[in-house]
Structure formats: C-alpha cells, structure tokens
User: Fold this.
Amino acid sequence: MKSSRFAILIATLFFASPLFAQKYDPSTLVFPPILHIWVQKATSTHLRLYTKGQVKVKDPQGVAAVRLDSWEDAKRPGDDDELTVYGVNAGFNMIIYNTSKTTISFYGINESGEKRLKQPSGITAHRGGDVYLADTGNNRVAHFFNPGRELKYVRSLAGLNAPRDVAMGADRTVYVADTGNHRILVYRDDQLERTLPVNAPLQNPSAIAVTLPNDEWSYFHDGFLVVVDQNAQRVQKLSLNGETLASWSALENGKPNTKLGYIAIDYYSNIYVTDLGNHGIHKFDRNLTYLTLFGRRGGGAKEFNEPRGIAIYKRFGQVIIAEKESAQYFWVGTDVADFKAAQHNSPALLRLDYFLTEASYVKIEIFDERKNLLATAMEKTLRMPGPRQDWLDGNWRPVDVEFLNATNATPPAPIKPGNYRIRLTVQPTYSSYKHFEKSVETTISF
Assistant:
C-alpha cells in the first residue's frame, strides 16, 4: 500500500508530539512506519496554528472514516487508503473533516437555524457520501451528504431523546442509540423501520456499531449490533433483530473505573471499545470474548488520556482514535502472550499453547540446543484471536488432534529425545503485515 496522506488530517485533528522509545510497547495496534506517515500522535497545537487560532479542540467525541466513491481515480490505483475522516469537536458544536489529502474544512462555524448543531456526539459515514450525526443537544440525528468536497445538511431525524451515537451499515441502514428513551431505532431512507431491542431492555445506550453480512470488507460476513449501555459500564452484542447474543459487564469483570466511550468493528468482526476511565481500548473477539486492554494512561506512544471516538477502515486496518486533547493513528497489529511448550506422551508429541489478540499469520521454527534450525513446522498459517493450540509430531509436522484421537488413526512419528528451542513468530494480516512481526521463544526437553 502506497504512502497515505493522513499527516495533514491527523495533525488537523490534534497535531504532532514527539515519540520516545520506551520498554512499554504493546502491539495489538502498531504505528505505521515513518515513511508512511510522519505524524503518529497529534495534539491540539497544530489545529490552532493551522486555523490561525480560529478553531480549538474542546470535548472531542465520535470519529468516522470512509473511502468516498467520489474520490476514486482509475488513473491512481494506489490511492485506495486515502480516507475522508470526520471528527466531532463537540465543545464548539463542530465537525472537522478533510476535503482532500491536504486540506480540511469545518461544519458548524457559521450555521444557524435548523443547520446549527448542539452538543453533537457520535458520527457515522458511508462510502456513497451519506453522513449521520447524533446531535444530542437538539434531540435529533442530523443527515448530511458529502459529494466529495463539502458537507451539506440534508434533513433531521426528530422525536429522539438525547441520542448519543449512530451507526450505518453497508446497505445504508441507520441505527440510532436513542439514549434517553433506552432503545435503538432503525431507519431506512430516513424512515423509521423498527425499534429494538426485543428481549432485553437497554439502560441509556450511549454507543453503537454494526456489521452486516453484505459488508464488502468482512471476513466472516457477520450481521450483528454492539451497544454500550448501563451508564457506560456494559457492552452487549445483539442480533439485527435485537436479541441479546452476549454481554460483558465492567463491574462483573473487576474494572470498576470503566467509562466506556465509542465502538468500532474490524475486518474479522473483532470489537473495540474505548474506555475513558481506564485510558485504553478494550478489545473483544466476534463472540464478545475479552481479548485485551490496549494502552495505559499517559502522554507517550500507545498511551492515552481519555480515549473517545474510534474508527477503523476495515480494508487496510487503519485505526484513528480521538483523545481528550489529541489523536493517534495506528494500523491493526497483533500481540502474543502465554507461549508455552508441553510434552504429550504415547506417542511423544509437542503441544504449543499461546494467546493471540488479533487474527495472525503464524510461523513456528524448531531449533536444537546449538540454535541450529531443524525445521519450519508452520509458516503463514492463519490463526484467529484468543487461546490457540498446535501439535507437532517427530517429523515437525502439524498433527490434527481430532485425527489423533480417532480409534483407527495411525500413530504419528514420536519426537526424538533432545533439547529444543521453539520460536513462534506472528504477523498481522493487514497493511502492517510487511512492516511488523513479533517473535517469542521457549524451550523444552524430551
């Protein structure tokens, strides 16, 4: 993927601060190489400089990122990562967005009447140009259209009670977190289609995200909603019909300081939820099984101060996160933990256990005690996030455990006695694939 021009955009949201080398370096999200983008973390300073002091950052909220169809240029096949990013600057009732790879614009500075915003929060965008904003203080959702270079007000969806967030599917279906009315509203062509949920009441839903089966950039082609409710303490996964599929409570999982913000869903249907109270990003798999908390409080690399809006462009795994006074730009990476090797007897096999925070390409190498490479047992093998387990036989070939347990299975060759070093290398599957990998090692004796 060619170099992106997000430097201007991210700096526009909240400009660059220096990054210093630290031992703390989680890799569930990773920074792009400096040749791809020279700004990785940004503060509000540049926005003031860029606008000559006319625009400041105050209470940033939702973020949306989309590749507009109107930006497609058949003569430039390498420009597919150039996104339009919308950031809500709620304290000044404003939307900040880029109109090209080097220029920005604002909605809300001079608007009046029905076009004027009041305490806006969540925002969502479609590649066709439609943009929807939860205009919380006006008790409505505002519909805009961007033909490519200008955000134009279309109409409002009224009759709501302090809606906090909005999500839009690939088919332009719009889902609204009608916070004050404790419900989700579903719209098609700006007409109310149905009200959710069906079987489990919501308590002040404040954030929402959706993935649909017809989403072009979706590995599983899932269809479900994710909602934050219960005073920003709970995450729920709902079917598109509003049935509760899974639930995660911060209090029940020992995180009392949690204040959940916004939600994003990636290509593998993994779920990301920002947390202002714990200053990080909670990551769940597609079944809402907890994977990790990325980030910690601070002003350095991969540290946050009240992360709020989050947007993921699924095709390339580009991630934008707005904080209290800054923003960070990442690629989806991967991390590995709890790598262990164990011996299985009768026959002697090698069992490897490890934990992944993202779908990853896995490589397993076997070395003798003199560090000579004996075999590459696996290479570029796709593994999903969560706890994983692989088995190897005496020829250092993967063994299917179900086949091994079959009564008529031929026993695999046993591993010869000796001391071995096992190296596990993981790589992400997105844009960061050629730029990042992580290796861990362990030893075992047979």
Confidence is low (pLDDT under 50) at residues 1-22. The first helix runs from residue 6 to 14. The longest strand covers residues 373-383.
